[in-house]
Amino acid sequence: MSSRNDASTPVAIQSVSRRFRRKQALDQVTLEIPRGVVFGLVGENGAGKTTLIKHILGLLRAESGSVRVFGMDPVKQPEEVLKRIGYLSENRDLPNWMRVGELILFTQAFFPDWDPAYAEELRNTFDLDPTTKVGTLSRGQRAQMGLLLALAHRPDLLLLDEPSSGLDAVVRRDILGAVIRTVADEGRTVLFSSHLLDEVEYVADHLAFLHEGKLAWNGLLTDIKSRYRSFTLHFPTPCDKPPRFDGALSWEGSGLEWTCLFEGDTETGRDAATKLGAAIMEETEPSLEEIFVARVTGKRNRRVLAGREG
Ligand code: ATP
Fold first, then answer.
1. What share of the chain has pLDDT > 70, as a percent?
2. CATH 3.40.50.300 domain locations along the chain
3. Which of 13, 16, 18, 20 to mutate to test the pocket of ligand 1 (most atoms within 8 A of CB)?
4. Site to substitute for ligand 1 among 19, 21, 51, most atoms within 8 A of C-beta
5. How far does the centroid of ligand 1 lie from the alpha carbon of residue 91, in Å?
6. Atom 31 in ligand 1: which residue has the minimum CA distance?
7. How many other C-beta atoms lie within 10 A of the C-beta of residue 232?
8. Which pLDDT tens digit goes with each residue over 185-214?
9. What separation in Å is there between the alpha carbon of 211 and the centre of ligand 1?
């Protein structure tokens, strides 16, 4: 990849593999994260998201392939790389014995570019009392505290590992979404991992999907979504099973009416429906969640990434 060593490219990952005993956590992953984007990293539990983020941070060394962050090797140049990164870890490791205010001052000491006014603004937004012991914060408050610490030095690259975990819906949508967008609008870059596809759809503009350590998809969200369509078809005679239909990923329905999640060129899908003698009753853009579920399971309406069915 030509921009691999380019200092203006936040993240360039080339053919990175990583094995933990018998588990292939990452398998030949190649991806590039351009500047100023919100990049959503999605995948089931254990797909390799955290392992990938740890390579970007230099906490894990690539067993094969290479990782460059702003053109640098994060294992060889940790200081230069880490000062440009804000990181919210999945398990929110924070010193429980400190108070909120103390932890803010303590963290500030490590970052020359720390913005105290912004830290204070975030502390107020999150309604975090500076005298509260970190160990007594709720799960959601810990996530907010971690987010504040990751953001207040205005990093060029913000890495958020499951940032929504523990946050209620309002904070998730209104605050997290706004914070993430602001970072990107200022020309900085955000990589966040999530298994909440509605959230990814709402906030990300690029998307990478890890499946069992392999990069299954990578691209602009709009490009990915434009390849899918949901067709509700009315057939002249009842069908007791879904018809043969090239590009159909999943079907739902019975008798005369069936709904198909279709992958491919929309016009080709319409032609195929007409050839089957079906009338298209409805045509909609499926949600990211519907697309993923159909791709992973071949079924509709199952929340596989969230690890639950419904
Ligand atoms: P989750 O959403 O559950 O956090 P993830 O996509 O972040 O999942 P990873 O944490 O990267 O997944 O884990 C990928 C695989 O590698 C899993 O099977 C995990 O058990 C394994 N793994 C990760 N770290 C280690 C380790 N230090 N030692 C052994 N196995 C590990």
1. 94
2. 35-61+71-216
3. 20
4. 51
5. 13
6. 20
7. 18
8. 889 999 999 888 888 888 899 999 998 899
9. 12
Closest CA to 260 of 290, 240, 237, 238: 290
Burial bucket for residue 6 (CB in 10 Å: 0-12, 13-18, 19+)? middle
Q: Which atom of ligand 1 is nearest to the CA of 18?
A: 16
Query: Side chain identity at 62, as an amino acid letter?
Result: A
For 117-155, the pLDDT digits (tens) are 999 999 998 899 999 999 999 888 888 899 999 999 999
The β-bridge relationship of strands 228-239 and 157-161 is unpaired
Q: Kind and range of the H or E element at 233?
A: strand 228-239
Please check whether the domain covering 226-297 is classified as CATH 3.30.70: yes
Burial of 286 (0-12, 13-18, 19+ CB in 10 A): buried
* Secondary structure of residue 11 in the 3-state scheme: strand
Ligand 1 binding pocket, CB closer than 6 Å: 20, 23, 25, 43, 45-51, 90
> What is the atom index within ligand 1 of the atom nearest the CA of 51?
11
Q: Where are the alpha helices (DSSP H) in 128-176?
A: 139-151, 169-170
- Give the model's pLDDT for residue 3: 55
Amino acid at 55: H
pLDDT value at position 296?
A: 73
Q: What is residue 302's predicted lDDT score, i.e. its pLDDT?
A: 44
The token pair that represents 129 in the structure block: 């009392």
Write out the two tokens for 276: 């089957």
Q: Which of 129-143, 152-166, 170-184 has the lowest mean pLDDT?
A: 170-184
Q: Which of 13, 22, 23 to mutate to test the pocket of ligand 1 (most atoms within 8 A of CB)?
A: 23
pLDDT: is 148 or 166 the higher one? Answer: 148
Q: From the options 3.40.50.300, 3.40.1190.20, 1.10.3720.10, 3.30.1120.10, give the CATH code of 35-61+71-216.
A: 3.40.50.300
* Predicted pLDDT of residue 308: 35
